[in-house]
Amino acid sequence: SQGEVLPQPNEFQKLLQSLPIRKSLLNTNLYLYDGSWIGESCLESLIDFQQNFQAQDTDIILVTTPKSGTTWLKALVFTITQRFQYKISDENHPLVTTNPHGLVPFFESYRSIAAGMPRLFATHISYTMLPESIKTSKCKIIYLCRNPRDTFVSMWYFGHQIMSKLDPSSQFPSPEECLEQFCEGVIHYGPFWEQILQYWKLSNEMPEKVLFLKYEELKGDIIAQCKKMADFMNCSFSSEEENDGVIKDIAKFCSFEHLSNLEVNNQTEERSVPRLDNGMFFRKGEIGDWKNLITTSMAEKLDQFVEQKLQGSGLKL
Ligand code: A3P
């Protein structure tokens, strides 16, 4: 008798079979691809993006560690670059009706076209993984990271919330278990320190190509950081704009208080990233909230671990 003809695995399935695999904290598959742990649902569109994306010299690419303030950075860069097109007010600005993730698309979650000029895109991937045209064109990269304690705690709450929505019968691992896996590097886009170090070094070697920012610095002096971003993107604020309070208006408009209170970011049904409610990107927006989840000794252990990884780089987080 003739045997059943099984469907042949396609190229992507063959690739998946060849990659190291681990479980994420959400109990989904992570694959080690090009040195980073990538979720199965992102990998196919990411490879498509790597192979087909053509950067333009005017593009601006926002690269961030997950939970480091991506949503905030998207809002700020959108508002700064589009300020001549959209007046900063609650009347008709796109940010009032659209979550920042709907205005600045992620490369890895779906193929989408950025609206407006300059084109703005975001991603969480390492420099190694970026398509060649981003590296060879004059397009610019803004990188954002955050203190690992707060990044970790933000990630824990985010994961916990996703798990309770997607799979209420499952238990999200404890902070202790999560911290272990965080430091092992087996988290989405991990190991986080390798990515941070990579962009840190590049920002020192090619300051006109990569701007390196920290969440804490944005919180510390948002006006100075907005100016720095605008200068870097070749759309500096004029002294007239500065005197008119435009930078202050932008900072206020993109603040946690303003954005998180908008209806579009409050209604749980609104979604700009597949499966994730807009409101999930706004939790507390504070520095030091780690204190409410992990012990001082866990935090100190994490610090020691990170210090060791960053040793000799000149970077402090
Ligand atoms: P917390 O969980 O500590 O509150 P990402 O956008 O990369 O997913 O990061 C989410 C983190 O940024 C969350 O931190 C969220 O509350 C905070 N955040 C979101 N919008 C912000 C804003 N406009 N200003 C400051 N922090 C913001």
Automatic annotation (TrEMBL):
EC id: 2.8.2.-
- What keywords are annotated for this sequence in UniProt? Transferase
Question: Domain Sulfotransferase, which positions?
Answer: 57-314
Keyword Signal included in the entry's annotation = no
User: Does the keyword section mention Zinc?
Assistant: no
Alphabetized InterPro entries for the sequence: P-loop_NTPase (IPR027417), Sulfotransferase_dom (IPR000863)
Coiled-coil annotated residue ranges, if any: none
Q: Tell me one GO molecular function of this protein.
A: sulfotransferase activity
Superkingdom of this protein's organism: Eukaryota
Q: Which family does it belong to?
A: Belongs to the sulfotransferase 1 family.
Which PANTHER family does the record cross-reference, listed alphabetically?
A: SULFOTRANSFERASE SULT
Name of the molecule in the record = Sulfotransferase
Q: Which organism is it from?
A: Thalictrum thalictroides (Rue-anemone)
